[in-house]
Specification:
- The complex is a heterodimer of chains A (about 140) and B (about 180).
- With about 140 residues, chain A is mainly α.
- Helix content of chain A is about 70%, strand content about 5%.
- Chain A has 8 helices and 2 strands.
- In chain A, a hairpin with a 2-residue loop joins strand 1 and strand 2.
- Chain A is flat, with a radius of gyration of 34 Å.
- With about 180 residues, chain B is mostly helical.
- A two-stranded antiparallel ribbon of chain B has the order 1-2.
- The longest helix of chain B has about 35 residues.
- Chain B is globular, with a radius of gyration of 21 Å.
- Classes of the chains: A mainly alpha (about 140), B mainly alpha (about 180).
- At the A-B interface, helix 6, helix 7 and helix 8 of A face helix 1, strand 2 and helix 7 of B.
């Protein structure tokens, strides 16, 4: 509010201005205090003693796993697993290698893969000639492993 | 266990395909090479059978039998053998030796197992696909369901039957 050559500040505006400066600072103090309190409580807490008092079997008995699994999209979870990395980083690969046959099987896999690659190459070129984008081989209605 | 985030990690095995095509319509190369193997196997087995018959005749009668392709009995016997070879293989397991080698299989057009009757019809209709310079095979290249003329007549299709994903896992497991 202007009066002559000087500015007169309304008292309510001044109060709001002060609060706007003080509130963030007080929130920071409160946050720091809360962090410190939590840290002290956690350090004082004996988790092992707490777990000793909890009957985990009883807790597990109360969990309805079927209901839990119904709410989970397992297919989506499995899709997120990088199986290649899993095989490379764990002993699962050795198990698979031990359970499958030897060099002949490898050669057969490679020959089949090469032929399928040729199938896809031909199909892509036919798709280009027909001006129809190739999106992979189709399958019959009952198709599946 | 690593969650897949964004792009897949670079493959160290470009040879083995990542995706399993099991149950999808097989392409031209797989079918053609499988058929070539079947022709070689059927001719080879037939030649061995003729050689065995010649040997038996020489042992039993002391006379040599001269086989040639102009002999009507040889042609009829070969046609019968080829019919049995393909029809029995497709009826019994949906695959011949060549198809088993290249991981393809004959199924009904809805994807279920082919019956004996369809296997017989498919075998009888197979020569029709060779007419007019193999025009009946163009459906494998151009058709949405990759069916040749004899597939259409018999109500069958050919699909991949091997698990490429399992093959890739085997490959990766040996790379370690």
């Amino acid at each position: 509010m202007r009066s002559g050559d000087t500015w007169r500040v309304d008292s309510s505006e001044r109060r709001l201005l002060a609060e706007s400066r003080l509130i963030p600072r007080s929130e920071q103090w409160a946050q720091a205090a809360a962090d410190r309190v939590v840290e002290l409580v956690v350090s004082a807490l004996d988790v092992n003693a707490l777990l000793d008092q909890v009957d985990l079997n009883d807790v597990l008995d109360r969990i309805d796993l079927d209901r839990l699994l119904e709410r989970m999209d397992l297919n989506e979870i499995v899709k997120r697993i990088d199986v290649d990395a899993l095989i490379e980083q764990t002993d699962l690969g050795a198990v698979i290698a031990a359970s499958s046959s030897g060099v002949a099987s490898d050669v057969l896999d490679v020959v089949r893969s090469q032929t399928v690659g040729l199938d896809e190459f031909i199909a892509r070129w036919v798709g280009r000639l027909r001006r129809r984008p190739y999106t992979g081989p189709p399958g019959p209605p009952e198709a599946g492993p | 266990m690593t969650a897949r985030a964004g792009a897949a990690p670079p493959s160290r095995s470009p040879v083995i395909i990542r995706e399993s095509l099991q149950g999808k319509y097989a392409g031209f190369a797989s079918r053609f090479t499988a058929f070539a193997v079947d022709v070689a196997v059927s001719v080879g087995v037939f030649m061995l059978a003729l050689a065995a018959a010649s040997f038996a005749a020489r042992v039993l009668t002391g006379k040599d039998i001269a086989w040639n392709r102009g002999n009507t009995w040889v042609v009829v016997a070969y046609a019968a053998w080829v019919f049995v070879y393909f029809a029995y293989s497709w009826a019994a397991s949906g695959r011949t030796a060549g198809m088993a080698l290249f991981g393809v299989r004959v199924v009904r057009d809805d994807g279920t197992d082919a019956s004996g009757r369809r296997a017989v019809v498919r075998t009888l209709a197979l020569p029709l696909s060779f007419l007019f310079l193999g025009l009946g095979f163009t459906g494998i290249l151009l058709g949405d369901r990759r069916r040749a003329l004899h597939d259409v007549i018999a109500g069958t299709a050919v699909v991949y039957s091997w698990d490429a994903r399992a093959a890739r896992l085997r490959f990766l497991s040996r790379e370690r």
